[in-house]
Specification:
It is built from 9 helices and 24 strands. The chain folds into 3 domains: about 170 residues, Beta-Lactamase, CATH 3.30.450; about 140 residues, Sandwich (Immunoglobulin-like), CATH 2.60.40; about 110 residues, Mu homology domain, subdomain B (Immunoglobulin-like), CATH 2.60.40.1170. The strands form 5 sheets. Strands 12-14-10-9-24-22-17-20-19 form a 9-stranded mixed beta sheet, with no helix packed on it. The longest helix is centred in the first third of the chain and has 19 residues. The relative contact order is 0.12. By secondary structure, the protein is α+β, with helices and mostly antiparallel strands. Strand 5 and strand 6 form a beta hairpin.
Length: about 450
């Protein structure tokens, strides 16, 4: 059980649209209680889940116990200038209800572009249809906008009379994310392993925080109903198959793995095999995280020297700390400067340097940065209104240096695609393409 009713209100709690699925909740009173909660509860005390007793009085969490509370449970989310709320009298799964609301909001965004009060008022008819199809008697149904579009159409696109009573095949199919009968002239699939490095380095060179956020992205152009099997150098998979010793030093222990719904989770939990029937087109197969120590791929240090006569000089040194056969593309080193410098002059051993007064920063751009290289850049500025000893001026250049980059054919974690098998009953030959990309995430180095 997820919800007895779902309704959408504006920021003041005024109801815009609603759907009562079970009829066991007095909807008008429920909206009044929700509005009262919004108006009477201070912002810092508001929570996405709250409760009322049988008399409609608000309950504290410590007062809620047992298998039921005898009143109502409200679960809501805030979206732009709207609230979307689900209410139930049952002891429902709150996480599932929140997930349903967020997925429903995404469906609305897919249909209307933006989800705001105006878009709700302009699309009442379609919203009622979507509310009816995404939940049935309080139970969630299909929340895939691609499937919903096949039978809930907008504008002049209407279904033929003889098909309106028939549910789309995808809804009754075990593989709801993929339609049957897909055909492509050329069968191929593209797989990108993309890792973003979050890094914070102290002024003395100590790595304070390092984290890898990875994603396995796919673009599938395969005919029929193919079965795919993906093998990674996953440490737990090697251990499960008794090959831990031979994989020592070549395996990766992934954390916080999240899969697309097409992956057979039971199979993965059993032997770490990633087996799935892919959706057609582009999707994220999985995401993962590694909270591990990583040395800076691109090291930057800056020496700032204020001079008498209202001048300031920067000497910036950068070093690429990855293998020489790899190349970082479109590197940007963003160095903060005081807000009112003038008369900029630059000298660099490579790349171009630009002063951006609107961002109070200097950007050093290096189009291609090979591994194992070191470069220098000097920048001179005038400080017309600030003396060299002004503390405020000094603080303004203490913000961290930020670095942006992209390194193809390289992963920080060392993750590798060992195989990608494609099996389809017609026996066609498909071409798999695999790429690796490492890019910056929140990558910052503090200045001395």
């Amino acid at each position: 059980m997820v919800a007895s009713a779902v309704f959408i209100t504006d920021l003041s709690g005024k109801m815009l649209i609603s759907r009562n699925y079970r009829g066991d909740v007095p909807l008008n009173k429920a909206v009044e209680r929700f509005t009262k909660y919004l108006l009477d509860t201070p912002d810092e005390q508001k929570k996405p889940i709250f409760f009322t007793d049988v008399n409609g009085e608000f309950l504290h969490e410590e007062d809620v116990g047992g298998t039921g509370i005898g009143g109502e449970t409200y679960v809501y989310i805030a979206l732009s200038n709207l609230y979307m709320c689900a209410v139930t009298i049952r002891n429902s799964n709150a996480a599932l209800t929140l997930t349903f609301l967020y997925r429903l909001s995404q469906v609305f965004k897919d249909y209307f572009g933006t989800l705001e009060e105006e878009s709700i008022r302009d699309n009442f008819v379609i919203i009622y249809e979507l509310l009816d199809e995404t939940m049935d008697f309080g139970l969630p149904q299909s929340l895939d906008s691609t499937i919903l579009r096949s039978f809930i159409t907008t504008g002049a696109n209407r279904m033929a009379e003889d098909t309106r009573s028939k549910p789309p095949v995808a809804l009754t199919n075990a593989v709801s994310w993929r339609a049957e009968g897909i055909k492509h002239k050329k069968n191929e699939i593209f797989l990108d392993v993309v890792e973003k490095l979050n890094l914070l380095v102290a002024a003395n060179g100590t790595v304070l925080h390092s984290e890898i956020l990875g994603a396995v992205k796919m673009k599938s152009f395969l005919s029929g109903m193919p079965e795919l099997k993906l093998g990674l150098n996953d440490k737990l998979m090697f251990e499960a198959t008794g090959r831990a010793n031979q994989a020592r030093g070549k395996s990766v222990e992934l954390e916080d793995i999240k899969f697309h719904q097409c992956v057979r989770l039971a199979r993965f939990e059993n032997d770490r095999t990633i087996s799935f029937i892919p959706p057609d087109g582009e999707f994220d197969l999985m995401t993962y995280r590694l909270n591990t120590h990583v040395k800076p791929l691109i090291w930057v240090e800056a020496v700032v020297e204020p001079h008498k006569g209202s001048r300031i000089e920067y000497m910036v040194k950068t070093r690429s700390q990855f293998k020489s056969r790899s190349v970082a593309n479109n590197v940007e080193i963003i160095i903060p400067v005081p807000p009112d410098v003038d008369s900029p002059s630059f000298k660099s051993s490579v790349g171009t340097v630009t002063y951006l007064p609107d961002k109070d920063a200097v950007v050093w751009k290096i189009k291609q940065y090979h591994g194992g290289r070191e470069f220098l850049m000097r920048a001179h500025f005038g400080l017309p209104s600030i003396s060299a000893n002004d503390q405020k001026a000094e603080n303004s250049w203490k913000a961290p240096i930020r670095v942006q980059f992209e390194i193809p054919y390289f992963t920080v974690s060392g993750i590798q695609v060992r195989y990608l098998k494609i099996i389809e009953k017609s026996g066609y030959q498909a071409l798999p393409w695999v790429r690796y990309i490492t890019a910056n995430g929140d990558y910052q180095l503090r200045m001395a």
